[in-house]
Design a protein that fits this description.
Blueprint: H1 3-21, H2 29-41, E1 58-62, H3 74-83, E2 89-95, E3 98-102
Antiparallel strand pairs: 1-2, 2-3
Helix pairs in contact: 1-2
Length: 104
Amino acid sequence: LMMPDEMVRAVEVSKMYWRYLEELPPLDMKDAFAMATRIGGSFFGKVGAFEEGYDFDAVVVDDTAAKTPLSIDLSERLCRSMYLNRNCRMTDKFVKGKKILSIV
């Protein structure tokens, strides 16, 4: 699975569902990100959040190849990197605070 693709699909499907039923608001990218990290990570214990007592598991993503003339905040960069994930690349990966992968 490509987690960014699945996050985008979750948002898309929730919008289609909302168009038919309009009972619940559709997911936004923050919701999908939480489902993929904190909520999904809770199955494995104290992972999926940058909080005290949680394991530091993280992926560092370089989104500089997905150029934009706009000034965008972190939330917008997250959303853009999920939709344009082919233009973004992982540079580092950490598991339990230890760097296990570094791509130059």
